[in-house]
Specification:
374 residues; globular; eight-stranded mixed sheet; D-Amino Acid Oxidase, Chain A, domain 2; binds flavin-adenine dinucleotide; alpha+beta; ten-stranded mixed sheet; 18 strands; FAD/NAD(P)-binding domain
Length: 374
């Protein structure tokens, strides 16, 4: 338990955005504390795939954020003792129109380092892949087990960087230099607020005006009866029709129209496929996207069936046992991030495009700069 109560900068929220901001502030030599409502991070940052993606991010600034974040993750995982479970991503084109999107993507600057795998290469890397119209391979991605990585990151920030952590302490209000928590007042010249999808505790009027909604996602962990190895994340046409980095291409229109006809139920529930593997051989598979003004409290089997159906269209894996189901929620808006400075010295930041693991470290740097007025 930290005992100091005065810092240069206090971060609210120990999700990945808060931890990334704490790291960025320490890189500037500031004395930093992180204050978290819960006993540990239980938000979106530990419920996600742990999939750090570059390919598919919105072109321009956000893609650059992902590239920068990927670079910082590489430094951090080595130092914090976080295991990278696999690298790269494989997109299977199940339709010729998806292959057109891939070819068009490769002609853009975002295609750098990516390529279409030859049939032999694809069969070598992923022998269980269903037949299709080509596989786009991106080398830029990596995957960590978030539920292990986040606590390790926090412990490392504390031990190696001297960040003070206050757990089980909701922050109730900020009036710098005072930060009012459920257990007393902390003092800091600067604050960075990273509340995830809590839009009601700090600066609620501002977050309401920003037209932020909540997106609830369903996730599954499945164990294949026969051992198998995924060398990287596996995705399908549905992601090529969903991710901004692809949908911004003219060729995406034909694919989206076809999916609208052939997989309307998937689109209705925002289902697309990401499959990644954990150290015990199980696969984390998702996901769906249901938008509203609150979290969706109930999970639906029908949505899980849509996700698993797509998995079977992409991978020849029989006899899967579902061993875990969970849901996660993130704040969502038309833009991919929301950041603002509601008072001098304070920055508030949310990643609203569902890509916080992939863009956290760059966004954390932006938020610290905003709070410093830099
Ligand atoms: C199921 C799912 C899958 C996803 N998959 C991916 C993926 O593979 N790749 C990717 O890049 N992104 C993914 N995302 C998105 C990504 O997980 C989020 O963008 C990211 O985790 C958001 O981080 P955060 O720190 O803002 O939020 P959170 O992780 O929710 O953390 C916010 C923290 O702030 C705390 N807090 C809030 N208010 C207060 C307060 N007043 N006082 C104290 N503490 C407070 C909360 O308790 C919480 O711990 C996924 C999201 C979900 C839900």
């Amino acid at each position: 338990m930290a005992t100091d109560t005065s810092f240069d900068l206090v971060v609210v929220g120990a999700g990945i955005i808060g931890l990334a901001a704490a790291y960025a502030a320490r890189q500037r030599g500031l004395r930093v504390a992180v204050v978290e409502r819960h006993a540990r991070c239980i938000g979106a940052s530990v419920r996600n795939f742990g999939f750090v993606t570059v390919t598919g991010q919105r072109r321009g600034e956000h893609w650059q954020r992902a590239r920068r974040t990927r670079e910082v993750w590489e430094q951090v995982v080595a130092q914090a003792g976080i295991e990278v479970l696999h690298r790269g991503a494989y997109f299977l084109a199940r339709r010729p129109q998806a292959r057109d999107v891939m070819d068009a993507f490769l002609r853009t600057d975002m295609g750098e380092g990516c390529r279409i795998l030859g049939a032999a290469e694809a069969a070598r890397d992923l022998p269980m892949l269903q037949p299709g119209h080509g596989v786009l391979y991106s080398p830029h991605e990596c995957r960590m087990e978030s539920r292990e990585a986040l606590p390790r990151l926090a412990r490392w920030l504390e031990a190696a960087h001297g960040v003070a952590f206050f757990w089980n302490r909701p922050v109730l209000g900020i009036s710098l230099p005072q930060i009012h928590t459920s257990q007393g007042v902390l003092h800091a010249a600067h604050a960075v607020v990273c509340p995830g999808h809590d839009l009601h505790t700090l600066y609620p009027e501002m977050l309401t005006q920003a037209r932020i909604r909540l997106c609830t996602l369903q996730m599954l962990r499945v164990m294949p009866a026969q051992p198998m190895t995924l060398p990287g994340a596996v995705l399908s046409d549905l992601s090529l029709a969903r991710y901004d980095g692809f949908t911004g291409l003219a060729e995406a229109g034909a694919l989206q129209a076809l999916i609208q006809t052939e997989q309307a139920e998937h689109l209705r529930h925002g289902v697309h496929l990401i499959a990644v593997q954990s150290a015990d051989g199980s696969l984390v598979v998702g996901d769906s996207h249901v938008y509203g003004d609150s979290e969706v409290p109930f999970q639906r089997d029908g949505i899980d069936d849509l996700i698993l159906g797509e998995l079977h269209r992409v991978l020849r894996v029989r006899d899967l046992r579902v061993v875990e189901r969970w849901a996660g929620t993130y704040a969502s808006s038309a833009d991919v991030v929301y950041k603002t400075a509601p008072a001098p010295g304070v920055a508030v930041g949310l990643v609203t495009g569902g890509t916080g693991a992939s863009t956290s470290f760059a966004f954390g740097e932006e938020l610290v700069a905003l709070s410093l007025g830099a």
